[in-house]
Amino acid sequence: MKRQIDTEKIEACIREILVALGDDPTREGLRETPKRVAKMYEEVFAGMTVSNEEMVHLFGTTFEEEEVANSPHQVVIVRDIPIFSYCEHHLALMYNLTVSVAYLPKDKVIGLSKIARIADMVGRRLQLQERIGEEIAEIIEKITGSEAIMIKIEGEHSCMTARGIKKPGTSTTTLTYRGNKIEQDASLRQEWLMLLN
Ligand SMILES: Nc1nc2c(ncn2[C@@H]2O[C@H](COP(=O)(O)OP(=O)(O)OP(=O)(O)O)[C@@H](O)[C@H]2O)c(=O)[nH]1
Ligand SMILES: [Zn+2]
């Protein structure tokens, strides 16, 4: 996964695309466009230069609050974290994306902002909505050792709303769960689903 974003190459390619579109990349409004797009890609695809393993270390702030973490009915839910992503099939924007995370702590709790940081960074990749959930779950599992994690993501895909089938307002929901406790306990899944909805 570890890569550098080659901004010079992106600039050159965007210039070619402008030519292929029949436009003039030297005209006033387009002169800086390749550079702007390269800079934008550096920002919106920042997650492509960071591996999941690196995120475990970068966002791995935890607190060894055993008494709290291991309390029998403790569940932590962070809801409606807004993120953006890009679909890998069309390079089209996924927008109005919100991520909600529920997890059962074990021995320690994760710093709450780190859940949002992980979701944000995983979104900054060429993605499938389903994979965003899988990757967030994997990173949170590695950081917390949790045996029950559920991720709900809702969002709109501009490749479905602004082109192709063009159905604005269509929203997609994906659910990912991870860990022995949630995989083996249908009633826990049911309860968390209600809490996330
Ligand atoms: N499962 C999944 N599919 C996605 C996601 N983002 C985009 N897609 C779909 O990827 C598919 C690509 O289909 P293709 O038939 O290869 O491409 P296309 O001809 O542009 O398809 P249309 O969008 O139907 O016009 C489309 O059905 C998209 O809706 C995603 O996050 N998850
Ligand atoms: Zn798409």
TrEMBL record:
Alphabetically ordered keywords of this record: GTP-binding, Hydrolase, Metal-binding, Nucleotide-binding, One-carbon metabolism, Zinc
Protein name as annotated: GTP cyclohydrolase 1
Residue sites binding Zn(2+) per the record: C87, H90, C159
Catalysed conversion reaction: GTP + H2O = 7,8-dihydroneopterin 3'-triphosphate + formate + H(+)
Pathway: Cofactor biosynthesis; 7,8-dihydroneopterin triphosphate biosynthesis; 7,8-dihydroneopterin triphosphate from GTP: step 1/1
Subunit structure: Homopolymer.
Cross-referenced NCBIfam families: PRK09347.1-3 (NF006826)
Transferase recorded as keyword: no
Origin species: Turicibacter faecis
PROSITE patterns linked to this entry: GTP_CYCLOHYDROL_1_1
Entries under Pfam families matching the protein: GTP_cyclohydroI
PANTHER family with a match to the protein in the record: GTP CYCLOHYDROLASE 1 (PTHR11109:SF7), GTP CYCLOHYDROLASE I (PTHR11109)
Class in the EC hierarchy, top level: hydrolase
Signal sequence annotation: none
Keyword Zinc: yes
EC number of this enzyme: 3.5.4.16
InterPro entries in UniProt: GTP-CH-I_C/QueF, GTP-CH-I_N, GTP_CycHdrlase_I, GTP_CycHdrlase_I_CS, GTP_CycHdrlase_I_dom
Domain GTP cyclohydrolase I as annotated: residue spans: 10-196
Entry similarity comment: Belongs to the GTP cyclohydrolase I family.
